[in-house]
Amino acid sequence: TPLIQGKTGQGKTHLTANKMIPKLFKDENIKLSVVSAPNYGILNIRDFENAIDKNFADGEVAVTDNFDSARNELMLGKKVVLITIHPRLISPAGMQFLDMMDKFAYNQYAIFIDEAHSWLVPFWTLYKDARGHHTTALHYKARLYRLLENRQTNYQFWLTATPTNVQTGKISYDGKLQCKIINKLPPKNLTIDRLAYLNSVQYYNPEIS
After folding, report:
1. 18 and 61 in contact (C-beta within 8 Å)?
2. Are 158 and 152 contacting, i.e. CB atoms less than 8 angstroms apart?
3. pLDDT tens across 145-158, in order?
4. Of 9, 67, 92, 151, which one has the fewest beta carbons inside 10 Å?
5. What is the distance between the alpha carbons of residues 36 and 186, in angstroms, rounded to a whole number?
């Protein structure tokens, strides 16, 4: 599974919404793109609506945060961007929706997992080495990883600013989904004034004592 790493505010969501999803829809015959994050505060559905408005004709692609709405739009022949969160994706409704996609749209949908470091440790026994603190089989069941490894699509993408030791390859494992980082972080001097959260740069004279 390809993992894209990027500093906080560098533009991982922008890349997903404005470049990757439009290309998948136009060039790869993808019908659905699911974009999921740990909680609602991370993704802004308006970012995806704006990207779709810039790249597609009115009504060609639907953007929604609801499984039922996504299903209905797909049945109408539209392409769909579904914005959701990990807890909903691993819920019975989320699993049922993805099972439907496996059956009726085999390898014709994409999944983007944001903050991939936080939910995708393959096994609880790796949690300490991957995340830095202990857990137990009772508390961590790797439900998102289990869900993703059974999907019938080759179009899975993970995004994070902080890959774990498992995701960087420092720790090996036998899981079905093997992660590979596909990009290098740019030098800091080329990104310091471009990070979204920074907004602006104020320079100081180093000679002032």
Report:
1. no
2. no
3. 999 999 999 999 99
4. 92
5. 25
